[in-house]
Amino acid sequence: MDALRSAITLFSYFVIPAIVVGFPMYGLYKKVPVYESFVEGAKEGFGVAVRIIPYLVAILFAIGMFRASGAMEFLVGVLNPVLSLIGFPGEVLPMAIIRPLTGSGSAGIVVDMIAQYGEDSIFVKMAATMFGSTETTFYVIAVYFGAVNIKKTRHAVPAGLTADFAAMIIAVWTVRLLFG
Length: 180
Hints:
- It contains eight helices and no strands.
- It is mainly alpha-helical.
- The protein has one domain.
- Helix 5 packs antiparallel against helix 6 and helix 6 runs antiparallel to helix 8.
């Protein structure tokens, strides 16, 4: 198990530099004007950012109300007995509830958990792994679908939530496997 941890640690040192260098190099190889493409994308991104502000404000307001109302504690209390049957600890349930809604809210959950349990806690490792392996499904639906005026999401929400649920369970099991 120590060899696996060492290999993962070594691999992790090279992932971000490989991505930062690899994409521009691939673009140059394909004869794409990398800098010009980046600047054009940044211009388009600014316009999208302005269009999504109303959706962003609405979802952040809803999440604030959800947490302040006590609904979070209620959901944790209801779901904890069921999820404990599959080894999902109640301590990370707030992360599982907030993550599909917002990235910044789930980052706040991780910060709260670090303050409560310490940065080396297995619960924090589970939450951080969930943070990196799941998507903010409702945020994506509200903001990005709203930005391009898609009204009918059809299968996007069920597919996104299914993927999130699977990733959360696997995150918990993987952290238990690697860190006991």
